Amino acid sequence: MDKKLLTKEELAGATGVAESTIGLYLKKGLITQPEIVSNYKGRKGRIGLYDPACVNRIRKIKELTEDPNNYTLEAIKKQFDEEGRNPLQKELTNILAEILKTSWDRRYNKEEINVLSKGMYIAVSTGSSSELIMENLEELKKIKERVEKEK
């Protein structure tokens, strides 16, 4: 292990939040899943070890939930998801939005529907390769050009 992983107790101590709150953040997908190990430092049974990056993430969550704007955990999750997206996914999302906004009443052929569907999936998926995103971007740009010509 290169980094010093933290137990839930250590994570709670480092962030000033209750262990139950850490469990809630984990359940909501706001922090990464712990690495499960057996017999850690002489403890019997399995224990979850958290990445040290969770400390900053939890501090940010705490800061946002204490903000006068009253950020909900759902809004924070959406913000974190957006920050973690590949910039190409953002471009892909923008092109999809343009196509659908400017041609909402247009009938698409089966090929175009497949490209649009694939694009929507890639836009929201984490871990999509840049190559896959670029390939779909090119296909979407072609559809966008056809839609613009039809106007």
Task: Summarize it.
The protein is built from 7 helices and 2 strands. The protein has helices at 8-15, 19-27, 53-65, 73-83, 87-102, 110-124, 130-150; strands at residues 35-38, 46-49.
Global morphology: elongated
For the largest sheet, list the strands in their spatial order: 1-2
**Number of separate structural domains:** 2
Helix segment tally: 7
Number of strands: 2
Unreliable stretches, pLDDT < 50, 5 or more residues?
Answer: none
Rg on CA atoms, Å? 21 Å
Topology order in helix (H) and strand (E) letters:
HHEEHHHHH
Structure description:
The protein is mainly α and 151 residues long. The chain has 2 domains: 8-83, Orthogonal Bundle (Multidrug-efflux Transporter Regulator, Chain: A, Domain 2), CATH 1.10.1660; 87-150, Substrate Binding Domain Of Dnak, Chain:A, Domain 2 (Up-down Bundle). 62% of the residues lie in helices and 5% in strands. The protein is built from 7 helices and 2 strands, in the order ααββααααα. A hairpin with a 7-residue loop joins strand 1 (35-38) and strand 2. Helix 5 packs across helix 6, helix 5 runs parallel beside helix 7 (130-150) and helix 6 crosses helix 7. The longest helix has 21 residues, at 130-150. It starts with 7 loop residues before the first helix and ends with a helix. The model has no long low-confidence stretch (mean pLDDT 83).
